[in-house]
Amino acid sequence: MESVLITGASGFIGSFIVEEALKRRFGVWAGIRSTSSKKYLKNRKIHFLELDFAHPNELRAQLSGHKGTYNKFDYIIHCAGVTKCSDKKTFDYLQTKYFIDTLKALNMVPKQFIYISTLSVFGPVREKDYTPIEADDTPAPNTAYGFSKLKAELYIQSIPGFPYVIYR
């Protein structure tokens, strides 16, 4: 059975991704914060993995412990993120960077790394005529959240040979 780690699994989007992965018979690991609610994660087939993206040494220990017991994940859907906060410095791509750097250092790069981004990377594009955003539109975020997601995308794209897909 193939395995998938879904970070941000306790969130609105993440919890639906967990449900779909279970339907598709993946071994599902829900990556959550220690403070995360498991309200929408009741299925007994879900495995939980607490991850601390803000502290690289702690993250390394958490992932290393998993690898020692279960090996690496076949797929990772990185859906974790901060959508609002009292200090805009909290919006930072470094947590995604720490995560990927740790996966690489531990030889845990999956077959596919799926990064859940946002249309906020485009900012207020096409607001004059409200035509659909196009993939080749130039990103111009105007929020700390949009900037952080764009920086993470650019970091991911800069890694030679890294197997990624970015969803906006």
Describe the structure.
This protein has helices spanning 12-23, 56-70, 94-105, 144-157, and strands at 3-7, 27-32, 47-50, 75-78, 112-116, 164-167. It has a six-stranded parallel beta sheet, sandwiched between helices. The chain has four helices and six strands; from the N terminus they run E-H-E-E-H-E-H-E-H-E. Helix 2 packs parallel to helix 3. The chain has 168 residues and is α/β, with parallel strands linked by helices. Helix 4 (144-157) links the parallel strand 5 and strand 6. The two termini are 28 Å apart. The mean pLDDT is 91.
In angstroms, what separates the terminal alpha carbons?
A: 28 Å
Largest sheet: spatial strand order? 3-2-1-4-5-6
What general outline do the C-alpha atoms trace? globular
- Report the radius of gyration as a whole number of Å: 16 Å
Number of strands: 6
Structural class: alpha/beta
* Low-pLDDT segments, ≥5 res: none
Fraction of residues in H or I helices: 25-40%
Number of helices: 4
Q: What percent of residues are in strands?
A: 15-25%
Average residue-wise pLDDT: 91
Order of helices and strands: EHEEHEHEHE
Q: Main sheet?
A: 6 strands, parallel
